[in-house]
Amino acid sequence: MKAKKRTTIYDIAEKLNITASSVSRALNNSSHVNEETKKLVLKTAAELNYKRNILASNLRKGESKTIGIVVPRINQNIFSNVIAGIEETTYSKDYNLIICQSNESHEKEVKSVNALINQHVDCIVISVAAEGSDYSHLQNVIDHGIKLIQFDRVADDLETLKVLNDNHQASLEGITHMIEQGYKRIALLEGPQNLDIFRQRKQGYLEALKLHNLPVINELIIENAWTKELGADATRKLLNLPEPPDAIFASTSDFSALGVLEVATSMGIKVPSDLGILGYSNEPFTELTSPSITTIDQFSHYMGKTIANLYFQESENKESPIVPRTISVKPKLIIRASTSRRSYQ
Amino acid sequence: MKAKKRTTIYDIAEKLNITASSVSRALNNSSHVNEETKKLVLKTAAELNYKRNILASNLRKGESKTIGIVVPRINQNIFSNVIAGIEETTYSKDYNLIICQSNESHEKEVKSVNALINQHVDCIVISVAAEGSDYSHLQNVIDHGIKLIQFDRVADDLETLKVLNDNHQASLEGITHMIEQGYKRIALLEGPQNLDIFRQRKQGYLEALKLHNLPVINELIIENAWTKELGADATRKLLNLPEPPDAIFASTSDFSALGVLEVATSMGIKVPSDLGILGYSNEPFTELTSPSITTIDQFSHYMGKTIANLYFQESENKESPIVPRTISVKPKLIIRASTSRRSYQ
DNA sequence: ATTTTTTGTGCAATCGATTGCATTTTTAAA
DNA sequence: TTTAAAAATGCAATCGATTGCACAAAAAAT
């Protein structure tokens, strides 16, 4: 069956012997149409199964009621939750979401962002890929008059709306907790340091050590260990040191922490008694492992709602320019078995 | 900073003293433009930071190069993988994806589908919500000349392109495996029977029992136990029966299987020796639980690629009408600890 | 009864890109 | 050198909805 031609406002107009203008006004519930015609139009529209052509409408109005989202991966806890949070709010306002994944590739991120600019989205919400440090594509978004909201992983020197976690604080609390549990040689698995969030987590780690007069041991700090595999590799290296750590903070993700746990288990090292493990993100699986993994919850769903609200707030006062500002959400330490050698065990 | 006006083909045309037609042709790499002008246009376009207005382009061409996807939840393994699979293929062809979640609500599904029709997407890919059995909104998609591809959970009486798992076969194999492991009283946690996939899984279960001359015991078949909580409730009920089952097939999902495992563990029932557990979907967490959960992998990423290819295949021969057909992907039983009382343990 | 205001419609331009047809320019063939 | 063919460009309509302006009809005010 061939695609039939769709009903347009002209079809409705013709049938009712009025102009398309009136039909348009009726459909938009304008006050400049007679109640009678309005009813008639709506009825006929329903009869003819009319669907407004958003392309035409948006072209004319210069808006798209669409928000583009670019995240590294949609199936990571924080991102799918943020998306769900955004959706809840935007859905009720008849906005569409276009979701893109960068797969941590800078090139794909750039292409996605450009595609969204092409689409004339009203706003782009992004958490940048680990790869890359050139953010001219984001500047480009702003230059095109499209609102830009960054979250979690942000390009810090770009002045935009930002919704963040207080990574420093979370990290500080996590390490403090470990120290209180009696861990003394705490290793750090770092994420790519070009990303602010990972730098902050490192700062929190360093500060916690300092506050408790613990030395910073460079061989216990491992760069770029942010997947499960890299976390596992790093752990093998660490546990084979002459003086191995008694705890590992997988600051990059719970996936990395999972790698740590698996290696430790396979090496016969007891968690949490011989080795404490702290992850990051509160992925659902962290409460399923044995022992369950202590981690940090980012309130990602709430972040999503915050982002959406921020957008609508900004849209309302169209005249005033956007004041770049940062909203910081305080994450929460979720204490589980993998660090609880005093209380738990 | 106010949104500056964007560069259009007219701006380029004016600057080069040619017409917009030529600019358009140059940008579309038409053979009807001089190589020189083509180069010049491309250069100027880059200089002026030109971005084609897809709204205008699509309006004119009557296509949108956009595929809409509606799934119950994007953070469920099968769905996020299918989406990723679709994206890989469509991305290289410059297609956009609009992703909607129905959250298992029929009403939201209908609204999402209508929004996608409004958007003039070229194709809608859907896995229907558990709720609801009226599929006129899908008929509506077809009536609007939009391609419709259903996957996994489908409205069976609607004649469309379908990409499915062979649920019956998978279920049959899973139960056969359990029987071979010596389980004799195997309970079934059913999903909503208005969905074909759950009916098929039940059929597979029944057939396996029959093949091995095992009786069908009605009190071991529990309706609608398809979340973690419902799975847990069902398990409590089952294990408190005078003659409790020695195995449970959570045919609905691994989440349900997880509920089973947690209840069993808390009741001190040993898995797999006292109770076998089989899940469905191969969620990532199933290999992390202890014991790890035997489950069925649906090759969801591959399904996604299949869906995308199916679409492009159909788009190519525009003339011939769409022949409704079904592609069935054979799932794979992943044997883990939760059912391995012979070999493993 | 006349003027003013309100309300409802229509007209026509607009958003930006595309494309069939006509026209001009260039190139090749006779 | 003239003619035919090919290549490049321009013109103008089109996709469908929206909206400022003009105008007519109806209602309200004088």
From TrEMBL, chains A, B:
<dbReference type="Pfam" id="PF13377">
    <property type="entry name" value="Peripla_BP_3"/>
</dbReference>
<dbReference type="InterPro" id="IPR000843">
    <property type="entry name" value="HTH_LacI"/>
</dbReference>
<dbReference type="InterPro" id="IPR010982">
    <property type="entry name" value="Lambda_DNA-bd_dom_sf"/>
</dbReference>
<keyword id="KW-0238">DNA-binding</keyword>
<dbReference type="Pfam" id="PF00356">
    <property type="entry name" value="LacI"/>
</dbReference>
<dbReference type="InterPro" id="IPR028082">
    <property type="entry name" value="Peripla_BP_I"/>
</dbReference>
<protein>
    <submittedName>
        <fullName>LacI family transcriptional regulator</fullName>
    </submittedName>
</protein>
<keyword id="KW-0805">Transcription regulation</keyword>
<keyword id="KW-0804">Transcription</keyword>
<dbReference type="InterPro" id="IPR046335">
    <property type="entry name" value="LacI/GalR-like_sensor"/>
</dbReference>
<feature type="domain" description="HTH lacI-type">
    <location>
        <begin position="7"/>
        <end position="61"/>
    </location>
</feature>
